[in-house]
Structure formats: C-alpha cells, structure tokens
Amino acid sequence: MPALTVSALACARGGIPLLEGVGFTVPEGTALILRGTNGIGKTTLLRTLAGLQPALSGTVTGAGDEAAYASHEGGVKAVLSVEENLAFWAALYGTQVPEAVYPAFHLAALRARPAGTLSAGQRRRLGLARLAVTGRPVLLLDEPTVSLDAGSTALFAGWLRGHLAAGGTALVATHVPLGLEAPELDLAPFRARAETLTDPFL
Ligand SMILES: Nc1ncnc2c1ncn2[C@@H]1O[C@H](COP(=O)(O)OP(=O)(O)OP(=O)(O)O)[C@@H](O)[C@H]1O
Questions:
Q1: What global pTM score does this model have?
Q2: From 93's CA, which of 84, 112, 188, 197 has a CA 20 to 30 Å away?
Q3: Which residue minimizes the CA distance to atom 2 of ligand 1?
Q4: Cβ(71) to ligand 1 under 6 A?
Q5: Domains along the chain?
C-alpha cells in the first residue's frame, strides 16, 4: 500500500515553472531521497507536497493531513522555551509531547531554555523534534541535517530509521548521506522546459 504517490506533478516558484511531469511512489516504511543541483526545485516540490503552495497540475495522494514538513528554518519560536515550543506544536497538531522526544533529539538539558538562545544546531534539533510531536506518518524533509554535527546527524538518522521501521514514510532532500537504504530520485529529467530555456546554469 503506497503511502505517498505523486503523478504528473508540475510546480512553480515566483511564477516560473520549475518542474513538470514529476511522478513517484514512496511505499510505507520507506524513504526516497530527492537529488538535484542547487535551485532545481527540491524545496519547491516539498513545499507543494506540504500544501504551502498550489501545484500547477498533477495529483498527490498521501500528503495533506498525513504529512509533516520540516523546512530549513524549522519554525522555532525564539521567545518560547524548548518545552513551550514542543507544547505549542502538540496543541497545534492535537497531540501530546512524547517524553521520549527529549532524549531522542538530545534536548533534555535544554528544556527550559528560550529557543532564541540556542545554538544553530540545537535550534535545528528542536525544529526536527517537532516531527516527533506531530505524530504524522509522512515526513517531508528539506535538508534536515543543516547545522548538525556528526553526532546529531547520526542521532537524527537513527530516529528517522525508527520512524520508517514503524511504518512511516519520508521524502528527503539532502546533500548529506543519512545512511538510509533508500532509493534516490534525480529531479534533472523533470526540469520544466521554460526554466531550461531561461536559466543557463540549470
Ligand atoms: N520566492 C521566490 N521567488 C522567485 N524565485 C524563487 C523564490 N524562491 C525560490 N526561487 C527560485 O526557485 C528556484 C528553485 O528553488 P528551490 O529552493 O526550490 O531549489 P532547491 O532545489 O531546493 O535548491 P537548493 O539545493 O539550493 O536548496 C531557484 O532558482 C530559486 O532561486
């Protein structure tokens, strides 16, 4: 039973068509790694699947309320503490904060800290911890390991493997190998023709 299926999808950014004819299936319990040069449209594709912008055409099944999106920024609220940020997201998604999220994302010692005082990597761990709070099975991840050191990258990769082993699904744009046994999808063949004609660097 496929968890995430995309068919004949076309998407644009800033009014310029970037990708067209995108199609793939990510079965339950597996991940798919998105590949492509800078600017090809990985973030745009993830934002479209997350419902943050409309597709130009095509169909998507298995995203919507099933999916959680983690962008580069992570959506961390600077004035709230780590605990308050997690509680805020839990309220938003109608869930409870699982106690296991603190050790899983190495946040136990930072619970009371205002997020604005966290280091970049700590803030990133908090942004990723949000995924565990949503309780959603389909994860749309945009460069999840940016700012993370090797230890934190391994910690997150381990958490993600656990999510997949529990039947979850992930679509991941990453330039950093996460050690997942996952197929890769190169977006180069899906470049929209208009973009190819106007951008000589693509
Ligand atoms: N708000 C915007 N308005 C106009 N163009 C934009 C906007 N945001 C992004 N773009 C452009 O859309 C294209 C696709 O950007 P996108 O962020 O999806 O690429 P990407 O594949 O994720 O790149 P990277 O690997 O650098 O993160 C780029 O050429 C980018 O400059």
A1: 0.92
A2: 112
A3: 14
A4: no
A5: 2-198 (3.40.50.300)
